[in-house]
């Protein structure tokens, strides 16, 4: 990787587009002065924004295209209309051509995953992409995947997710051997689905040097911080993330209306507002923006479509770190080197009788 | 149903047993003076508790047994050791024999579901039991099922869950035609699993008089109150519930430690503590205790194993209401009467050309 981190941005992605992406990039640049940007999209919209951020302008190149994938496009429509021409595709292609180290888009998730898969192709041994997000816990943070890039999957898929999530966590949290748990339920006698039990057995017998498999984790174990990486197929991962987000939002609403209902509570709130700010800071989805699309020959980060400039900057931060600390190499090592996750299981030595 | 509501209690169930169950029953009796109780378990433990609650004692009968299912017993162990003899089994059997209108147990979930299935048998047309819980939402409350009585399931299973959940919601919320949504994710082009889409089509074409099918609901739609009933198979239902519970607990922890860190915030908290009490009241799991085991020839309510007397009383309240308002008849109507959920789909009339 060259000295600079070269970041390709889909400047048209998200609910707002350039008016969020460009100021967001400017914020990220202030935190990472060694970043450079390729900005793909409608130059008539990008350039006026860029003119307001001269430092960003100095390290950016604008590549014009009229075509943008809309937030409503289905993946197949996006591919049909936007392949080779859209700002989303061109940002991904820059990574493919080696002109950028990472692509960041706030465009629609389904389209981005489909295009990334089509443009960058899957890593050797990986069948399907996955979306990984950073989740706040009581103890610190954890990585949860897959959040819905695809749904379902056998034990090998779960093991691949564990390996990729482990590599991501080792980069993000600077842990050489992050703990990994499989999301499961504790009610049934024989716990959970067959494929989860199988994946657990595989991970245990592999005993990978790059990750520490700790067993099953239930839904409430995510927030408790029971593991650095929580692995599950995309359906339940998506449900878990959204149910938790919904519960938090609902609680904030309830608290707000309870406080509004009493003037004493309002005074109390004013006095305690420092504490509330700490809380909001810790749980604000904006601070956890930036899901990583894993499993590809290239690094792609998905920003929330509705995020503001500060939120988008966080997604750029994630992309920067993934590129700077060479996520792809780490993933490949975990998957393939020294009896990695995709190597055949070691044969037990026969005991001498 | 006779004038009185007769409630069979597994007095040994839960982490504590009689010392929670008996005071809990006393609290529930104060709210429902027309209840009567059958108390199954070790009379040496039950009677001393009962002596402290003379009003409860006056409407209770103690049926002694030495055998209790432990919280650690696997379902198969519980059945082997506790069938026909344990306090859990005897409470269920009282319902089967028509001596009680409902059974309530805080015993272990897997054992209770297995025993209930074995003792009471499934309703006609229902293959598997389901666990339904009441969930607080921004707007009011909703019913979520299945929370893990079994995992997986085809479209017919989901339709049966919708019908049973609808009947439960109509009793709980006094709505003649509660809204029902299928839990799903919104990322993939063709949303979610095949069986969910199929179930959606079936529910739409059935257009049942007892429930209003509104389509798919995402994970964050549960807390928003998008439907009175949220239907999903047991794995994702369990994950959703626990992830949301975990997020709420985590948030309360964060808030608590943020407030503790500043004396100004502590004063603010004192002033606002009425508002916090309102919040706690609204989200306290204790106030939502009591999951209903659905699909059986009889009403069974599961209390959380770790709940206190007030929590257990809530579970008894749920059981009381289910019996008083004749949940079973409502379920059977929704399932079978007038082209109910289990009737064959109506054949479209041919248009006269």
Instruction: Tell me what the CATH architecture of the domain at 1-126 and 295-337 in chain A is.
Output: 3-Layer(aba) Sandwich
Q: Care to count the β-strands of chain A?
A: 11
Q: What amount of the residues of chain A lies in strands? A: 15-25%
CATH class of the domain at 1-126 and 295-337 in chain A, named: Alpha Beta
Oligomeric category? homodimer
Distance between the termini of chain A: 53 Å
Could you say which structural class the secondary elements and strand pairing of chain A correspond to? Answer: alpha/beta
Secondary structure tally, helices of chain A = 14
CATH topology-level fold name of the domain at 1-126 and 295-337 in chain A: Isopropylmalate Dehydrogenase
- What is the CATH homology-level superfamily of the domain at 1-126 and 295-337 in chain A? Isopropylmalate Dehydrogenase
**Mean pLDDT metric of chain A:** 89
Largest interface, and how many residues on either side? A-B, 73 and 73 residues
The topology string of helices and strands of chain A comes to EHEHHEHHEHEEHEHEHEHHHEEHH
Largest sheet of chain A: 11 strands, mixed
Query: What does the overall shape of chain A look like?
Result: globular
What Rg of chain A is obtained from the alpha carbons, in whole angstroms? 21 Å
In helices, the fraction of residues of chain A equals 40-55%
Model regions low in confidence, pLDDT < 50 over at least 5 residues of chain A: 345-353
Provide the spatial order of strands within the biggest beta sheet of chain A.
3-2-1-4-11-10-5-6-9-7-8
Family (chains A, B): Belongs to the PlsX family.
GO biological process, one term (chains A, B): fatty acid biosynthetic process
Main location (chains A, B): cytoplasm
Subunit structure (chains A, B): Homodimer. Probably interacts with PlsY.
């Amino acid at each position: 990787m060259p000295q600079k981190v070269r970041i390709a941005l889909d400047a048209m992605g998200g609910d707002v587009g350039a008016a969020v992406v460009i100021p967001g990039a400017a914020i990220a640049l202030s935190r990472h002065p060694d970043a450079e940007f390729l900005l793909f999209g409608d130059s008539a919209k990008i350039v006026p924004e860029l003119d307001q951020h001269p430092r960003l302008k100095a390290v950016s190149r604008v590549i014009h295209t009229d075509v943008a994938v809309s937030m409503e496009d289905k993946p197949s429509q996006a591919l049909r209309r936007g392949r080779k021409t859209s700002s989303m595709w061109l940002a991904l292609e820059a990574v493919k051509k080696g002109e950028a180290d990472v692509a960041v888009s706030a465009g629609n998730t389904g389209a981005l995953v489909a295009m990334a898969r089509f443009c960058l192709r899957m890593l050797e041994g990986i069948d399907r992409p996955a979306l990984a997000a950073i989740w706040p816990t009581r103890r610190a943070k954890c990585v949860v995947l897959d959040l819905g890039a695809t749904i379902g999957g056998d034990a090998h898929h779960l093991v691949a997710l564990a390996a990729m999530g482990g590599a991501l966590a080792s980069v993000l949290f600077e842990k050489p051997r992050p703990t990994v748990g499989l999301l499961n339920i504790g009610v049934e006698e024989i716990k959970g689905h067959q494929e989860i039990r199988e994946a657990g057995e595989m991970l245990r017998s592999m005993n990978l040097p790059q990750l520490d498999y700790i067993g099953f984790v239930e839904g409430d174990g995510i927030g408790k911080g029971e593991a650095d990486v929580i692995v599950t197929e995309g359906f339940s991962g998506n449900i878990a993330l959204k149910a938790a987000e919904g519960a938090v939002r609902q609680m904030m609403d309830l608290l707000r209306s309870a406080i509004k209902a009493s003037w004493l509570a309002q005074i109390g709130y004013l006095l305690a507002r420092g504490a509330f700010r700490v809380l909001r800071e810790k749980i604000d989805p904006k601070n956890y923006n930036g899901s990583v699309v894993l499993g590809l020959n290239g690094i792609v980060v998905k920003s929330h479509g509705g995020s503001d400039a500060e939120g988008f900057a966080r997604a750029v931060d994630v992309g920067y770190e993934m590129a700077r600390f060479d996520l792809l190499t780490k993933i490949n090592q975990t998957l393939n080197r020294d009896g990695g996750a995709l190597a055949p299981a070691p044969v037990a030595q026969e005991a001498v009788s």
